[in-house]
Amino acid sequence: MSTAEGRTRPAWRVWAVVAVLVLVVGGLHVYRNTNVLTGDRLCGGLVSTAKANAVLPGSGRLDAEGDGLADNLRDTACEVEKSSVALGSGKGILSVRVVEDRGDFAFADHGWPDPSEASFFSGPVTGGVYKYEGWVLLPEKCWTTKPVYLRGHSSEPISDTVAFAALITDAARAVAARAACGDLPEEPGTLLPPRSEAARPVSEKRVCGLDGFSVRGQVPVDTEVLEAGQTAPADLWSCTLFLDDDSRDIVREDGFMTYTASRDPLLIAAVKKAPGTSKGEAPDGREADVVDPQGIVLPCAQGDLYLAAESGLQYLEARKRHPDLPRRDAYFESFVKSATETFDCGTAAR
Fold this sequence. Notes:
By secondary structure, this protein is an alpha+beta fold. About 30% of the residues lie in helices and about 25% in strands.
């Protein structure tokens, strides 16, 4: 062997070692910072990898915890975490789970965000998304004694509500398909966002965008009233009134009164599942399904209409200071009168 060959071979060995190291480091990078080696769906097929990546910010690897559809549908859950060893990488946790609750949970449960902050969707699929939360009603065949829905939560603020709605809709579709209890589309319908990012002053005789709706005599004198919510009419709609006063933050955030209207058939079916729902009368004397003292379903020529009013902490505090304020029934009665006009339910179905 020549002296030249002895000098050349060690150099080739060095390059070979370098190449192996590059492959190893590259492989570790791909494994820890991307999902190239991961399947298209996570948690036994419940959550789309692509849709989860679209919701969680930045780049990184998705790791999931969850075994897919549980024997008991309500035990179904999936948690997806995005992480990376790279600087400036993505982060965050997404979770979806199947929950059983009353049909008006998104409007009457104070554990949920104010419905006036929601972007609702209706039609082939019924649901709503907020800054951190979202929900989709599962088909009626999936229900037992109560309506069943899929709830989504993000540890990071949602910057793309359309992407988040698509994720939870797709997950709900996967749950329903695997449970063989109905069909849902892969994508939601058009989202109906709030009219504005912040509450704004009401317009007299058009409060919440409802024809002829006024709160004159229903709020403390010389107190400005603000409103927030979606544009009426819509298949899923809400409006919350806030008093611009010196209420504590937690009281002010809960609002004065929240009004809800829906023409969505699935939501109305869910609402009617509430215990104690019975045949009765609307404030104007028409026949109606009475869900609770301030919640009814009216039969209209264009289909059923659900109307409800829910008082907030501001109302309770204001009534202590101003005992002459009307009782809750008065707020509901005036709302029903205006809402039936705006939502084209002036006459009952024959």
